[in-house]
Each structure stands twice: as structure tokens, then as C-alpha cells.
Design a protein that fits this description.
The chain has helices at 11-14, 25-39, 49-62, 82-99; strands spanning 15-18, 66-71, 76-81. By secondary structure, the protein is of the alpha+beta class. The protein has one domain (14-99): YehU-like (Arc Repressor Mutant, subunit A, Orthogonal Bundle), CATH 1.10.10. β2 (66-71) and β3 form a beta hairpin. α2 (25-39) packs across α3. The model has no long low-confidence stretch (mean pLDDT 83).
């Protein structure tokens, strides 16, 4: 099956939100650890280190403040804040308008 070039994919079809309950706990934990590192969290800042940050972020994920997003085009999955996701959506909409 051939894959459509990224620049030809409709952004609305390319990015999907993944419900946290669909992921095994170890996969979700690994994604959250990557998020902690990418966001520059100080893992020595919390008494429990990385585990403490992951536990805090699990709560934010449950409350909808964080989202797990899969990019079908690049086959990558990552965690975003709700604000990042909304900003990303606005950028996609702006890009679509510019392309018209």
C-alpha cells in the first residue's frame, strides 16, 4: 500500500487524538517521559524525580489538559498540552486558507 505524500494529505485526516485508555500504561508512561524531557522539566525538582512528573502529568492527561496525538503521515505519537493542540489546529487552518 503506497502512502500519500505528506504535503497532499488533508491535515484534518493526518492528525488524530488517541484516547489515553487505548494505550498500555508503559507506552503512556514513555510518551509522558519524552514530554517531560522535551518541555525541559527539571527531574530533580520533584522528590520522586521523573516518576513524580509522570504521575503529575497522568493527572493532567485524565483531566484533559494534555492530549496524546498521532501523526498518521510520520507515524509518530506525542503528548501535547491542550493549548499546544489548539494552537496547532489554528496553524493548520491558517495554512489551509493560504493554500486556497
Amino acid at each position: 500500500m503506497s502512502q500519500m505524500p505528506l504535503d497532499q494529505m488533508d491535515p484534518k485526516d493526518r492528525f488524530i487524538e488517541v484516547p489515553q485508555t487505548m494505550l498500555p500504561a508503559d507506552t503512556r508512561r514513555a510518551l509522558l517521559e519524552t514530554f517531560v524531557t522535551r518541555q525541559g522539566y527539571d527531574t530533580t525538582d520533584v522528590g520522586e524525580g521523573m516518576a513524580g512528573w509522570v504521575a503529575e502529568l497522568e493527572g493532567q492527561l485524565s483531566r484533559g489538559k494534555l492530549l496524546i496525538v498521532h501523526d498518521i503521515g510520520t507515524e509518530s505519537t506525542e503528548v501535547m498540552t491542550l493549548e499546544q493542540w489548539q494552537s496547532f489546529g489554528r496553524q493548520l487552518a491558517d495554512d489551509e486558507e493560504e493554500g486556497d
